[in-house]
Amino acid sequence: MADLFVTVDGRSLEATWTDDAPETKAALESALPVAGDGVRWGEELYFDLALDAPPENAREAVPEGAIAYWPAGSKLCLFWGETPASQDGEPRAAAPVTVVALLEDVSALSDLEGGARVQLERAE
């Protein structure tokens, strides 16, 4: 069962929390719903979001479908494929990020062009 509903340019996606970053998860969960105009970087969208959360298990290589927070830049990021920083085809952030959730299916994002409005809300 989904923990989050994510809307990207009218596309509805579901996501589940990970257990790797309890402080970041709590900060994001208390801020929900959140939305922003996503900037595209390869197969990643990111938007401004200030959370009071330290880096937790931060890394550059992330799984496909990762929803991650970049504390140094105050950005929430969605990864569904390669970025300009990718190596060997894996999604990769430009700097270490904290993965807080995973999109269950990223196929709806495969034909996304340019930036897009992104919204996250609790699944009830």
UniProtKB/TrEMBL annotation:
Organism field: Natronorubrum texcoconense
Protein name (record): Cyclophilin TM1367-like domain-containing protein
Ranges where the Cyclophilin TM1367-like domain occurs: 6-121
Record InterPro entries: Cyclophilin-like_dom_sf, Cyclophilin_TM1367
